[in-house]
Specification:
single chain; Rossmann fold; 2 domains; seven-stranded parallel β-sheet; four-stranded parallel β-sheet; 13 helices
């Protein structure tokens, strides 16, 4: 399968080079048209806010916006095939794949149809570069690095030496989670005490507190007395695991440190402010959806893409008069856990208190 995918990517690269890396004449921004966003179920509040952020930017430019959700990659592929087969002609498509690695065929079909495609949520590999115009969204590797840094700072504050730990992961095969854990592991190897290791890295099958609680209820008692930290790949998973730890007689901040590193809702925010979670970062789904749309708008306006990466400023959205970069990473600002940090930290005119509560 891997070799077949590489062959497909190589065969398509020559025919899509202009779309992928620029070289087209200035296109000028369309005054009307439709945008279709293919995403995951909005029952998950993160993906619901992805859609709101994208829709708000589309509305700003006077474009119609349609959101098509799916629970599996197969469902998403079928929806994309239906759009293409029925002659749907949007001015652009935004795609949050259910599985970044398995979405190659759909990305290829969209690009071959001549429709500008922007990806978000799961950072595509360089090998996939011919299959999309730009990526606009989170830097998941950085998210994992930040989580490890927050855990280190929390340990110093608590006067604890980090030892072995547990990872509460999300859906198997989810590229974003894999990149987060890799970033966490790399920072762990650089900065944790020698000999510290991950005793268990278990997929929960979801993104929310109940999934974290379910996995925590299994791996925490199974590793009793062997760990002093837990990393959930978002704050909700970490909070769920923390609930399970309390039921097993552990006190967060004393017997074990808990970190997620991507803020989510009022409950998890309060846990950060109370010190039960050692800190967090603003991975705002609203900003991510908007970032993808700003990248698409800049491409539609200029007809060009700048190769390489760019970390977007938290001060304001990027200008559409400049071509987007191939990889546009939204701000991932860390919070110190104080109430003031939630109120005073701003991204694109919105406070962390607003961006970190999207239930």
């Amino acid at each position: 399968m891997e070799n077949t995918t590489k062959m497909r990517l190589g065969a398509l690269a020559m025919t899509t080079a202009l779309v992928a890396v620029g070289g087209m004449a200035r296109a000028d921004l369309p005054e009307a048209g439709s945008i279709v966003m293919f995403g995951q179920s909005r029952e998950n509040p993160y993906f619901g806010q992805n859609a709101v952020g994208a829709a708000d930017v589309a509305k700003e430019f006077g474009w119609d916006f349609t959101y098509v959700e799916a629970a599996t990659q197969e469902q998403q592929d079928a929806a994309i095939q239906q759009l293409l087969a029925t002659g749907g002609d949007p001015i652009g498509i935004v795609l949050n794949p259910v599985s970044g690695a398995a979405a190659v065929a759909s990305e290829m079909a969209i690009t071959q149809a001549g429709i500008p495609l922007v990806l978000l949520n799961q950072v595509p590999s360089a090998e996939q570069g011919a299959l999309f115009v730009a990526y606009g969204g989170v830097n998941d590797y950085l998210s994992g690095v930040n989580a490890a840094e927050l855990l280190i700072a929390g340990a110093e504050k608590a006067g604890v030496e980090l030892g072995n730990g547990l990872v509460v992961n999300t859906v198997a095969g989810h590229t974003a989670a894999q990149q987060r854990v890799q970033g966490f592991r790399d920072e762990m190897e650089r900065s944790f005490p020698e000999g510290a290791t991950i005793l268990a890295d278990v997929n929960s099958g979801g993104f929310l507190e109940n999934e974290g609680y379910s996995i925590g209820s299994q791996i925490i008692p199974a590793n009793a007395g062997k760990f002093n930290w837990v990393y959930g790949v978002n704050d909700a998973l970490a909070y769920g695991a923390m609930r399970a730890a309390k039921e097993n007689g552990l006190t967060p901040g004393e017997d074990a440190l808990f970190v997620g590193g991507t803020c989510m809702n009022a409950t998890t925010n309060q846990a950060v402010m109370d010190g039960e979670l050692v800190g967090t970062s603003i991975q705002a789904p609203y900003i991510e959806g908007a970032a993808a749309m700003w990248a698409l708008a800049a491409y539609l306006n200029t007809g060009e893409v700048i190769d390489g990466e760019k970390n977007l400023s938290p001060d304001s959205p990027p200008s559409i008069d400049e071509p987007p970069h191939k990889w546009n990473f939204m701000p991932n600002t860390m919070l110190d856990g104080s109430p003031e940090s939630y109120e005073q930290t701003m991204i694109w005119g919105r406070s962390a208190a607003d961006l970190c509560d999207y239930n």
